[in-house]
Amino acid sequence: MLSAFVRAFRTPDLRNKLLFTLFILTIFRLGSVIPAPGVNPAVIKQCVEQVTDPASGSSSVYSLVNLFSGGALLQLAIFALGIMPYITASIILNLLTVVIPRLESLKKEGQAGQTKITQYTRYLTVALAVLQATSMIAMARSGQLFQGTSCQDSSQYMNQDLITLITMVFVMTAGTCVIMWFGEMITERGVGNGMSLLIFAQIVAVFPSSMMRIWQEQSVWVFAIICVAGLFLITTVVFIEQAQRRIPVQYAKRMVGRRMYGGSSTYIPLKVNQAGVIPVIFASSLLYLPQLAVGLMGSDSESPVVNFLTKYFDPTGTHPVYMATFFAMIVGFAFFYVAITFNPTEVADNMKKYGGFIPSIRPGRPTAEYLDYVLTRLTTPGALYLGLIALLPMLALGASGASANFPFGGTSILIMVGVGLDTVKQIESHLQQRNYEGFLR
């Protein structure tokens, strides 16, 4: 392993890519701790410590965004929104591709159409960034951002002038645009997928502090058990993320002029977790809407709706109704996302067009039905696996009453393992092109 790192840095092209990626990630993390204009950093630090203190019993409605921002959200930094607006915009565009014929035709146009869709994603990202920054600053101004702590008076940590508030919205929106540019630069000139690496960096950034908090609050044996359980969980996620069903495909020989083409064998790799972490993000985002509604209507309201949401959809996620709803939504979104991203009929038609067929399966409709049957059988355990992984921190929180900032959360582990595996594969491909020897042997 160490020799592979040495070979990676000895290769000039790969070394430049790695150093450029590390440089961008360093600047990205630096912007996550620089406060926005009009914010008092000293008071904000005290408020964040109260939120992360398990004795306070508080939980932020924006905890998913705070996770993807590496803790920058609660610090009201210039990169407070993180990469979340871009993720939301990308998900919305992927869903609209199935609904809007214009987007569907652009997707089929190849690189030119994909460039146009990327441009639409950027515009939507800016609009969502303005909306999220405005709502976040409004919640901070009303004291809802640090709900359950002593920081209910927003005048303690931020300026209340209208010009200052507008400037904060502008700065945070510009920060999101800079983050989006960082991700594209890493993808173009660095190693790995830029947006995924930015999310990876933000999640890893808060990991050491969470582990240190457990070390300080719990005994040595509890800390050791958590470390062993975390390693076991990571190993399980790596095993399942790498698992796939390979559908063999045979291409018939055909004569074109005086040359013979085809006759090759290949396969269609169908992963067990074909949807990735997207269903967890979908479900988490939707389940934060009830708490957002409670914050807007006021937690002290006597409305039956507010009482119902406060009782059954507590943001800590320890209520059985919350867990069951979360699990059901993840499973449903997993099937939905796989259905819109993998079209068995389109794959079968493309195979038939180029003379390909699955052994013992007739081309055309029987092939599409077979692919749909296999994909359904694979998605079922994959969706159940996603739901269980996402529920693990909630179950640990409800059983032990530990800190809500559990380091081995389902979403964070899925993202870290997925991005890590993808980045290692890209580095390995670069090494194999030059040294005929991979990164992992």
From TrEMBL:
Record membrane topology: Multi-pass membrane protein
One record GO biological process: protein targeting
Record keywords, A-Z: Cell membrane, Membrane, Protein transport, Translocation, Transmembrane, Transmembrane helix, Transport
Ranges annotated as spanning the membrane: 72-99, 120-142, 162-183, 195-215, 221-240, 319-342, 383-400
GO terms for cellular component: plasma membrane
Compartments it resides in: Cell membrane; Membrane
Predominant location category: membrane
Similarity field: Belongs to the SecY/SEC61-alpha family.
Function field: The central subunit of the protein translocation channel SecYEG. Consists of two halves formed by TMs 1-5 and 6-10. These two domains form a lateral gate at the front which open onto the bilayer between TMs 2 and 7, and are clamped together by SecE at the back. The channel is closed by both a pore ring composed of hydrophobic SecY resides and a short helix (helix 2A) on the extracellular side of the membrane which forms a plug. The plug probably moves laterally to allow the channel to open. The ring and the pore may move independently.
Subunit annotation: Component of the Sec protein translocase complex. Heterotrimer consisting of SecY, SecE and SecG subunits. The heterotrimers can form oligomers, although 1 heterotrimer is thought to be able to translocate proteins. Interacts with the ribosome. Interacts with SecDF, and other proteins may be involved. Interacts with SecA.
NCBIfam families in UniProt: 3a0501s007 (TIGR00967)
Name of the protein this chain belongs to: Protein translocase subunit SecY
Origin organism lineage: Bacteria, Bacillati, Actinomycetota, Actinomycetes, Streptosporangiales
